[in-house]
């Protein structure tokens, strides 16, 4: 409990600094060990008595065993084939130069603080420790800084993927790994994978058998003198990556391992780290030397090859800093060296501080030297609202969803929007919003979808995403709608940037966002996650097009039917103003007073045109009501509570609207939307609140800044 609480609190405190969680876990381990709190012997003997260390180490190594299995599952050996010559050259330079400098540093250390250690293993361990790049940490930093889609980000990911494979080969060399993995075992996993067809749950027996095999592999490799970790790692490599079997294994194991067991490994490592052993001018000079050679080798080697490949100087610098990040692999290397008596206490402490320092400086250095150029607004991005002269032209919509629960309503809304006789039709970008976390499956997905904003078909995503793909793919084929699934993986604090950037790149006319509350069985609205309310508000502030917020009350039920057969009653209360709907193909439209707003002339012209068009269409009923106050307007709206959906403007104008809802709980819905979603309004209709794009201004930013 102490370990989990301390590491999570440190991770929370370091979040504003944009530091990966591995930094907090290493620091937490050091603080709980003899370097800080452990200086109090009473504390050390009470919390970590000698008899408890065996249990701690056993649990920590069990967690590490399964973590290495997950690493093996997600290690992409094919990246060596896919990496271009440039990425391969950068990776080779980023390994060979620091390895050589590590070898040179090892001779200095052996002559001073590491006298008497075996020369061969020590040289290799030092070379490996300085040449490693932590792929998961790098991916997390790139995603956090939104550099995944840049040239630097893609180059760093490709080079780090190659470096990741090379690091494990070097580590195998460091502990004299010889011969693992026989073809009969590979055949067994292939057979298991084939017995788990796509779209069906993976048999528990296969999961259990595989996890038992991981333990058995660790036992066998340990028994023959090779470290137990490599048995589980090789077992992960042997499992086929295609199909649902590998992702099901990761889902079963990763949360328990990374959330509970792995932090114990960091504390186990921290208990072996005593910074107080670094004393005197010589020791601190050696620490500076190790940090300098580690940074020089990685950064200089990467920059030199990048410049030879004609990369701009700033991009080369950023790439050099990114490749210098360390992580858990570094910690594993150092701990194995400590166990094998290759590294003594002082050398071990120096190397731990080096890994901590090089990773800590990565994010601030990259931010200081590299800011990706903003793409200029597209000149041909003309249709930023759904209103246009040619109603038969293509309509582009960006639909965002957070979970599979949002999908039925979103599909029914798309179906109702496509019309029955449109020639160019509807193009829908369906964006799955995922929170960036430290889970290895999310980091793996970041790697697979680093070209963010492009379709993610058949990328081997987790089962939840596969269901999403299947649902939208089937709908697109049945409805003749162009569906292009996308994925956005970002922190909640800045995922709105992904939404707005994708909307601009794809030139969409409107963004549809789900409201942050969902309907319960008793009809009341319950908060899903309050952070999504802030996301919606930020999108409303910064969107390059119109925005609609959908309050889902089961639009169309769970079934999806074609537009020619669907029977929906869409009610559009039109008060007037720039945000109010332009219901050119909607249903009933009761109209409270529209004669008291600054856009009176525009509204009158629009209403005259709409009256003429609706008189030719039997499916549209136009109705005009005169009201004196907000109470009368509310009574009229209540008459239509049995409709399928209300479509309202977010900020309608006039004194009638001003009296509807003096204090709005959710400013993103506006006064009318707040009324329609309030507990006192008797309706089961869904509500779509629309904010129409206004060129050159963010008219609603004041509301949010005041809050």
Automatic annotation (TrEMBL):
It is found in: Membrane. GO terms for cellular component: membrane. It comes from the Eukaryota. GO terms for molecular function: antiporter activity. It is a multi-pass membrane protein. The keyword Transmembrane applies. Residues 424-565 form the Cation/H(+) antiporter central domain. Residues 7-187, 202-365 form the Cation/H+ exchanger transmembrane domain. It holds the Pfam family Na_H_Exchanger. PANTHER family: CATION/H + ANTIPORTER, CATION_H(+) ANTIPORTER 17. This is Cation/H(+) antiporter 18. It comes from Vitis vinifera.
């Amino acid at each position: 409990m102490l370990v989990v609480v301390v590491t999570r609190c440190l991770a929370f405190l370091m979040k504003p600094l944009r530091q990966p969680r591995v930094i907090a876990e290493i620091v937490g381990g050091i603080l709980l060990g003899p370097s800080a709190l452990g200086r109090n012997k009473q504390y050390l003997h009470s919390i970590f008595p000698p008899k408890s260390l065996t249990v701690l180490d056993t649990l920590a190594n069990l967690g590490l065993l399964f973590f290495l299995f997950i690493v093996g599952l997600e290690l992409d050996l094919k990246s060596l084939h896919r990496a271009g010559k440039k990425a391969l050259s950068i990776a080779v330079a980023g390994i060979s130069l620091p390895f050589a400098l590590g070898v040179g540093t090892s001779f200095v250390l052996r002559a001073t603080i590491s006298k008497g250690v075996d020369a061969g293993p020590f040289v290799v361990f030092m070379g490996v420790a300085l040449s490693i790049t932590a792929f998961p940490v790098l991916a997390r930093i790139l995603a956090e800084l939104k550099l995944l889609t840049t040239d630097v980000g893609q180059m760093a990911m490709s080079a780090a993927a190659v470096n990741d494979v090379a690091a494990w080969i070097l580590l195998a060399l460091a502990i004299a790994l010889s011969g693992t993995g026989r073809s009969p075992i590979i055949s067994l996993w292939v057979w298991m994978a084939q017995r788990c067809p796509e779209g069906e749950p993976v048999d528990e027996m296969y999961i259990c058998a595989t996890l038992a095999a991981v333990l058995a592999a660790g036992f066998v490799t340990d028994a023959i003198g090779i470290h137990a970790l490599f048995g589980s790692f090789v077992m992960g490599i042997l499992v086929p990556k295609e199909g649902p079997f590998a992702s099901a294994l990761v889902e079963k194991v990763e949360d328990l391992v990374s959330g509970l067991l792995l932090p114990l490994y960091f504390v186990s490592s921290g208990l072996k780290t005593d910074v107080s052993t670094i004393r005197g001018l010589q020791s601190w000079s050696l620490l500076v030397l190790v940090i300098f050679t580690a940074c020089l080798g990685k950064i200089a080697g990467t920059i030199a090859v990048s410049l030879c490949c004609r990369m701009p100087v700033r991009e080369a610098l950023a790439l050099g800093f990114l490749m210098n990040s360390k992580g858990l692999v570094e910690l594993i290397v150092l701990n194995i060296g400590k166990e094998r008596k290759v590294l003594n206490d002082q050398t071990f402490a120096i190397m731990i501080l080096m890994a901590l320092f090089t990773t800590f400086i990565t994010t601030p250095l990259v931010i200081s030297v590299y800011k990706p150029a903003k793409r200029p607004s597209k000149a041909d991005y003309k249709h930023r609202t759904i209103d246009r002269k040619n109603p038969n032209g293509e309509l582009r919509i960006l639909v965002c969803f957070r979970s599979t629960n949002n999908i039925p309503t979103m599909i029914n809304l798309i179906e109702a929007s496509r019309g029955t006789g449109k020639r160019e039709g509807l193009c829908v970008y369906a964006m799955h919003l995922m929170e960036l976390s430290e889970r290895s499956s999310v980091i793996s997905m970041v790697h697979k979808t680093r070209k963010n904003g492009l379709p993610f078909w058949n990328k081997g995503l987790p089962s939840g995403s596969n269901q999403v793909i299947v649902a939208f793919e089937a709908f697109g084929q049945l409805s003749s709608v162009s569906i292009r699934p996308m994925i956005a993986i970002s922190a909640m604090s800045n995922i709105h940037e992904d939404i707005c950037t994708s909307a601009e790149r794809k030139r969409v006319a409107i963004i549809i966002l789900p409201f942050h509350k969902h309907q319960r069985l008793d009809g009341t609205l319950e908060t899903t996650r309050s952070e999504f309310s802030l996301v919606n508000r930020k999108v409303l502030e910064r969107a390059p097009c119109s925005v609609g917020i959908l309050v889902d009350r089961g639009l169309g039920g769970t079934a999806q039917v074609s537009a020619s057969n669907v029977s929906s009653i869409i009610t559009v209360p039109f008060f007037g103003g720039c945000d109010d709907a332009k219901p050119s193909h909607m249903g009933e439209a009761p109209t409270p007073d529209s004669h008291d707003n600054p856009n009176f002339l525009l509204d009158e012209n629009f209403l005259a045109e709409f009256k003429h068009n609706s008189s030719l269409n039997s499916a549209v009923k136009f109705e005009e009501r005169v009201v004196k106050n907000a109470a009368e307007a509310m009574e009229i709206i209540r008459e239509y509570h049995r409709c399928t959906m209300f479509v309202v403007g977010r900020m309608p104008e006039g004194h009638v609207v001003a009296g509807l809802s003096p204090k709005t709980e959710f400013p993103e819905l506006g006064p009318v939307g707040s009324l329609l979603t309030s507990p006192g309004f008797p309706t089961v209709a869904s509500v779509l609140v629309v904010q129409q794009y206004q060129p050159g201004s963010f008219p609603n930013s004041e509301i949010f800044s005041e809050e």
